[in-house]
Write a structure and sequence with these properties.
InterPro entries: Homeodomain-like_sf (IPR009057), HTH-type_TetR-like_transc_reg (IPR050109), HTH_TetR (IPR001647), Tet_transcr_reg_TetR-rel_C_sf (IPR036271). The chain has 220 residues and is an all-alpha fold. It contains 11 helices and no strands. The longest helix is centred in the N-terminal third of the chain and has 34 residues.
Length: 220
């Protein structure tokens, strides 16, 4: 009898329910972000409503607000997850390709690893980038996000320039700041869109060309 009571008591069941609730919450969040991506790309940031996102996700508007937040928060999460390739934001130095870049000892290898990773990132990021570009012109929070992402990328490229300098293979007539600016400009989603969307290049061709260009431009 005592064993039956223990098995059915709330205290013994709670550890089993908590992971299930967490999994359900994570699944709901993924569904909301997927719906937000669809609706933002379909309608544009301004015309898109939270109600449309909620309807596509199959949840209530209140659930969208409590799971992720309002439209600026939804767009921020889409930017971060597009960059990380996961369902959450991941700091740059914890991403697999960044670890590969840091582990490489030759400058050409570092540049090639990074350039090869970019097409996959930009395929995820390009549609959201275009939404963010539009949103930054009409929403103060989105404009701040645009600036934040740009400055973060610039800092990361300056760190990469320092790593390249440490190999002893960079051109002596280029400063680390100039190296960072060159990489920063060519790794931008805008440049990817010019060649892939505008000129019909394949993402793979863009990546291989970018690696070759960086090696030619930056290394002695």
């Amino acid at each position: 009898m005592d064993d039956e009571v223990k098995r059915s008591s709330p205290a013994t069941r709670r550890p089993y329910r908590a992971p299930r609730r967490a999994q359900q919450a994570a699944a709901t969040r993924r569904a909301i972000l997927a719906a937000a991506r669809t609706e933002f790309v379909r309608h544009g940031y301004g015309p898109c409503t939270v109600a449309q996102i909620a309807d596509t996700a199959g949840v209530s508007v209140d659930t969208v607000y409590t799971s992720v937040g309002r439209k600026p928060a939804l767009l921020r999460e889409l930017v971060e997850t597009s960059l990380s390739g996961e369902d959450r934001a991941v700091p740059a130095d914890q991403r697999p390709y960044v670890r590969e870049v840091k582990a490489a000892t030759q400058a050409a290898d570092k540049l090639t690893i990074y350039a090869t990773a970019l097409p996959t990132i930009h395929q995820r990021m390009a549609p959201i980038f275009e939404v963010l570009s539009q949103a930054a012109s009409v929403d103060r929070d989105c404009a701040a996000l645009w600036d934040e992402i740009s400055q973060r990328r610039a800092r990361n490229m300056l760190e990469l320039a320092g790593e390249l300098r440490a190999t002893g293979e960079l051109r002596a007539d280029l400063s680390d700041a100039e190296v960072a600016d060159i990489i920063w400009s060519l790794n931008a989603v805008e440049y990817y869109l010019l060649l892939v969307k505008g000129r019909g290049w394949s993402p793979a061709r863009y990546g291989s060309w970018l690696a070759d260009a960086w090696v030619r431009l930056l290394l002695a």
